[in-house]
């Protein structure tokens, strides 16, 4: 009986996989690549002493490689300490199935003052934010801040 139940389960899984492949190939149902990509932001390291040099990385995960809203988007970093940086790039006109979104954005930043800062990464089309992510950076007082503490 165990073999029969297992055989039926395997047969059902194979059938479902075959149907999903046929439907996906016909274009009737979205394959999952049409979903909006997500953005994960991290800092390395996450904590340090002022002045604190950190490498910020924003990874665009999932979705189609030609996701139109993310193609040729303006990149904005908001450091949470009053500093912002924006970068616009020149791109060829968008072509479905051919244009490629950038999957990784890296920035090096120095935090001069102690505190906890929420770093925001945004992708924008004109003035509209089409995607974003964030991380937290913690900066402890450094030797030059000791006069302020006393």
3D structure, described in words:
19% of the residues lie in helices and 41% in strands. The protein has 150 residues and is of the alpha+beta class. It has two domains: 1-31; 38-141, Sandwich (Immunoglobulin-like). A hairpin with a 5-residue loop joins β4 (74-78) and β5. The longest helix is centred in the N-terminal third of the chain and has 25 residues, at 2-26. The protein is elongated, with a radius of gyration of 23 Å. The model is unreliable at 1-32 (pLDDT under 50).
- CATH superfamily of the largest domain, by name, is Immunoglobulins
Task: Supply the number of structural domains.
Answer: 2
Structural class call reads alpha+beta
Radius of gyration: 23 Å
Low-confidence stretches: 1-32
Q: What is the CA-CA span between the terminal residues? A: 78 Å
How many helical elements? 2
CATH class type of the largest domain: Mainly Beta
Short description:
The chain is α+β, with helices and mostly antiparallel strands and 150 residues long. The chain has helices at residues 2-26, 146-149, and strands spanning 38-44, 47-49, 52-61, 74-78, 84-87, 104-111, 115-125, 128-140.
Quick tags:
150 residues, Immunoglobulin-like, 2 domains, 5-stranded mixed sheet, 41% strand, disordered N terminus
Mind sketching the topology for me?
Layout (H helix, E strand, L loop, with lengths): L1 H25 L11 E7 L2 E3 L2 E10 L12 E5 L5 E4 L16 E8 L3 E11 L2 E13 L5 H4 L1
Parallel strand pairs: 2-8
Antiparallel strand pairs: 1-3, 3-6, 4-5, 4-7, 7-8
């Amino acid at each position: 009986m165990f073999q029969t139940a297992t055989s039926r389960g395997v047969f059902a899984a194979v059938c479902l996989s075959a149907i999903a492949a046929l439907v996906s190939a016909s274009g009737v149902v979205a394959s999952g690549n049409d979903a909006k990509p997500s953005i994960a932001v991290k800092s390395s390291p996450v904590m340090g002493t002022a002045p604190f040099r950190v490498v910020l990385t924003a990874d665009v995960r999932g979705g189609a490689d030609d996701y139109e809203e993310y193609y040729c988007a303006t990149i904005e970093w908001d450091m949470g300490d009053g500093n912002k940086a924006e970068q616009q790039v020149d791109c060829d006109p968008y072509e479905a199935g051919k244009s490629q979104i950038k999957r990784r954005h890296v920035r090096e930043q120095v935090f001069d003052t102690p505190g906890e800062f929420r770093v925001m990464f945004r992708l924008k089309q004109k003035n509209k934010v089409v995607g974003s992510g964030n991380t937290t950076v913690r900066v402890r007082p450094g030797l030059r801040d000791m006069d302020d503490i006393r």
